[in-house]
Amino acid sequence: MRERERPIGAVPAWIVLLLGAALAAQIALQAAGAPRRTAAADLPPAPSAAALRAASLGEPEAAARLAMLWLQAFDASATNEVPYRNLDYGRLIGWLGAILATDPRSGYPLFAAARVYAEIPDPAKARAVMEFIYTEYSKDPRNRWPALAHAALLAKHRLGDPALALRYARALRAVAEEPNVPLWATQMEIFILEDMNELEAARIMLGGLLATGRIADPGERRFLQWRLEQLEKRLSPSDRLNKNR
What we know:
The chain is mostly helical. It has a domain at about 1-105.
């Protein structure tokens, strides 16, 4: 995706000036004594994607990038104990959605969603961002899988919610055959099932993966074969009986 993005030097001068004016206004408000903690929770409502595109005057990619810079700078100098935690996440998600719709090819909004806004220690807000990522992933799985893979890891390790992690990991099946998607991303479902003690389901999936012949690396194939053998050893006698029928 990066090769399709233009350098900042290609951004029209009027947009750069507009961004500078917006930042200057924000600095002036801070200097005037506006309480920053309150401002952090007071993110304005998001514009529609149509409004952003209209304001871009034919430069939607540049407008989307500058809007993301503004959004991330909104709380950049706040005194909050945890950056971004006090933002209104309903409005935040509205901004991310509008920016992504303005430039659907950009990975910036979903990267920020997964790596910044979903990592706060507020489970309800984190879940809201993860659901946003899940919804947007389905519109372009080939290019948006990294954000959902990260959301699956956060759901498992940060939220301690393996069922949610499994839901996201299962959605990654849509990109299982894409050459640019690493195997670890599409293997997450197997290991989450194992962690949930869904051993038979994990065994079937892992055996199917090995049977496809997609695992070309001998070391990785040996490791997965070993994992399959360990799974089979952990199966209950009744599971083994069903397996051999």
